[in-house]
Amino acid sequence: MNHFAEGGLRADLTDLIASFRERLAVAEIDAAGIRIFEVRVDDVGTPYDTRRAAAKWSTLTASGDEVFDAVLRVADDLISADEEDPVLVVRSADGPEQEAALRALRQRRPSAQVVEAPGVKVGELLAELVAGAPLRHAYDLIVARKRADDGRLELVGRRLFGSGAKPGDEAQVTVTCTAPTGMLLAVSAWSGLLEPSELVSVEHAPLPPGRHVLRAVLERPGVVRFPEIPGLQPDTRPWAEVVAALPDRLGPAPRPAHLVCAIETAGTMEEFEARCHWAGYVIDLLAERRLDLQQLEVSVVGYGTHVFGTRHADRTRPRLAVWSASTAQARAALESLQPTAPTYPNAAQLEDVLAEVHARLLSHQGNPRTALLTIGARPPHPPRSGLDRVPPCPSRHDWLALLHELEQRLELRSAAICDSPPAPSSPWHRLGSAALFQVDAVNAEELVIRLGLASEPAAALSLPFVSQNEDIGGRH
Predict the structure, then answer these.
(1) How does residue 152 score in pLDDT terms, banded at 50, 70 and 90?
(2) Residue 473 in contact with residue 158, Cβ under 8 Å?
(3) Based on the number of CB atoms within 10 Å of its own CB, is 385 exposed (0-12), middle (13-18) or buried (19 or more)?
């Protein structure tokens, strides 16, 4: 094989496939006969090749025609007279039939480009180069977002691959799934108003509700894969039907919210890990359920037990791991907590937590939905000695008064997860007035709804959702 000739042919074909407007004709002339291939693009700019004719020299002349006349007749039908449609002739053998065929093709198209390439199989090379051609149009993922003026949903394109992208290129896009059954990944070549003919592919992704970072790979023009999503299935519904089923709105967005997680660190490693597990689970759940995470703040406070019987009153304060942070920062702060040994068996410094939260929340700007989730085993100390003989708080904090004021002034809702079933008169019932669970039987979905941090699922949106402030790279 002449590798130089093949390299030149490959370069010529690569340029022609990337640049032709309506169609490209490629005629292959060899020792056996002639074959004519055609390359076109579909409605989304994806090239495809077709073999339009193939005949041996003996077949062409079987009716008595000369090779010249027979090839000219074939060329009249298959090679456009429009000079804007390029024609490439690949000859790999010499002889009278080949010369006659070349003269006929040149008569039909004087501007035809001729390449001598012995030993090259044009059909195989065309299929390879068409599959590896760069994109003619940009590819976007069709997503929905709320319009800034009225909150109604609109469809926009989230850029995956720009014009000129090549097979093997990768892209990432962050979207939110709002439907429990998953969402449609519709890839479109945006070149005008969104029409079904511009869709590259539509697949159903069985993903859970929440935010997802999707990795897309351009396999070849017309084929985009999402390799890390198992169970993708083509969706064959008419696009008009998909659009007609979309809701006008997603419903009112959850108001800005602030969740304070207070976690008792005193106890065994097993007890401590169970408490941290549920705090992390609730944080992760909110990260999935809330569409606009910039409207959610999370604080993490760790607290232990007081020390009694020393000369000086215990003035240790709860450990503020993080305050008014993102869900990711709160998750990291939760990991920084460490278990502590209990220094008093019947109560913990929970009243000090409420005092700290009270002071910080009342100085907080804005009016977010405030929620307190307390997870532990021991109740708070009373402000003064009582019949239960539990020592009072060294700082005389009144946990019930603090909680009441937070509820009155900030509309705070409080939930609790305790290690064991609380007694009927236990403070845990008051601390868990919105929701009270045992650590081995928690319904986190119900908990976040009762705290007012996440709404009930709204109308199903079958397409990915992005918030207004997320960058949209495609055509609006």
Answers:
(1) confident
(2) yes
(3) exposed
Q: Say what the pTM is.
A: 0.57
Is the pLDDT confidence value at 226 over 90? Answer: yes
88 and 44 fall within a common domain: yes
**Which tokens sit at 100?**
């006659």
The CATH code of the domain that includes 315 is: 3.40.50.410
Query: In CATH, what number is assigned to the domain containing residue 104?
Result: 3.30.420
Q: Quote the CA–CA distance of 436 and 443 in Å, as a whole number.
A: 10
Task: Say if residue 191 is in the same domain as residue 110.
Answer: no
Report the alpha-carbon distance of residue 334 to residue 321 in Å, rounded: 7
**391 three-state secondary structure:** coil
Rounded to 5 degrees, what angle do the CA atoms 267, 269, 274 make? 90
SS3 175: strand
Same domain, yes or no: 164 and 276: no
Among 131, 150, 175, identify where a domain stops. Answer: 131
Last residue of a domain, one of 131, 147, 163: 131
Single-letter code of the amino acid located at 294 = Q
Q: Alpha carbon of 187 to those of 174, 198, 222, 460, 473: distances in Å?
A: 15, 9, 9, 20, 14
- Of 88, 113, 117, 122, the C-alpha closest to 4 is 117
Contact predicate 153/132, CB 8 Å: no
